[in-house]
Write a structure and sequence with these properties.
alpha/beta, 6-stranded mixed β-sheet, 4-stranded parallel β-sheet, 11 helices
């Protein structure tokens, strides 16, 4: 569902936002797309267990846990940070995942860096037996296939399609299904330019670029300016934004509009990739620092 954004914008520019956050109440946005074909593949390979990776407030961990419960898989979450093992009840994401039946394996941050190495995976198989492995963030060929279904025929009139970027899977799918006249712009939530190589592994088209100036300090970081923007955007549009991904992308697009980045009369489609479950965790952190809270729920 596309929703028109009634923001006052210069140069005849129009904005709509694709509400992927409304696809499912718990498997939100791009996570729904990324898991669709992965779980079909897990069933085709007769797996009973799905194992994946994530951090303390991971949208992906929450989505895999619920999807497993819904589709009859056991789920295992390898969690970055062994100090979180006795703090599950203090963490809304982990508590939700556990209530969905997910089993946790907490590892040190140092060990977590080796999560893609054969020895690390072999040790997990020795401990848990056979499982279907979904990478951190969910990005693989099946995830990209699912994300290729985000754009539909009715989106052909847009000149630009803008999307937040985490591991690169969602934007790769969008790039693959974008039309030749459309430019796809990705807004990384992480510092650095390394994501271009990841995207090139999956993206077949070349009509895309990354805008790297709107990470607000890096992954999981948010400042007062971003929080105020998210709250004001919600008041004006009734569209809730998360502070890790979509909030940064929308801030960036509107900032670029006012800086004359886009040609006059451009039609821009924003992709809302969900992730709203992370607001509760971010507000817990903001409250502990006596900062402004996100008021969109």
């Amino acid at each position: 569902m596309n929703q028109k954004i009634t923001y006052e914008l210069p140069n005849g520019i129009s904005l709509e936002i694709k509400r992927e956050d409304l696809l499912h109440p718990f498997i939100s946005g791009n996570k729904f797309r990324k898991l669709k074909y992965n779980l079909l593949q897990a069933k085709a390979e007769n797996h009973e267990t799905v194992l994946t990776f994530g951090g303390a407030y991971s949208n992906h961990i929450a989505a895999v846990a619920y999807a497993g419960k819904e589709q009859g898989f056991k789920t295992i979450g390898v969690i970055r940070g062994d100090e979180l093992g006795d703090k599950i009840d203090e963490n809304p994401t982990l508590k939700f995942a556990q209530e969905c039946g997910m089993q946790f394996e907490f590892v040190t941050r140092e060990a977590y860096r080796h999560k893609t190495e054969p020895n690390f995976i072999a040790n997990l198989k020795n401990k848990f037996g056979s499982f279907y492995l979904v990478p951190e963030g969910g990005t693989n060929e099946y995830a990209v296939k699912g994300c290729e279904e985000i754009l539909i025929e009715e989106d052909a009139s847009f000149d630009y399609v803008c999307c937040a970027v985490g591991t690169g899977g969602t934007v790769s799918g969008i790039i693959n299904s974008a039309l030749p006249h459309q430019k796809v712009l990705g807004f990384p939530a992480l510092k650095g330019d390394f994501l271009k190589d990841e995207i090139r592994k999956f993206a077949t088209n070349t009509n895309w670029g990354l805008i790297t100036e709107y990470h607000f300090g890096g992954y999981g970081k948010a400042n007062e300016e971003l929080i105020q923007f998210i709250n004001q955007f919600y008041k004006q549009t009734q569209v809730p934004l998360d502070p890790i991904y979509t909030g940064k992308m929308v801030f960036g697009v509107i900032d670029l509009i006012h800086k004359d980045y886009f040609p006059h009369n451009s039609k821009i489609l924003l992709i809302h990739t969900g992730g709203l479950q992370g607001i509760q965790g971010m507000n817990t952190l903001l409250k502990s620092k006596n900062k402004t809270l996100i008021e969109v729920q």
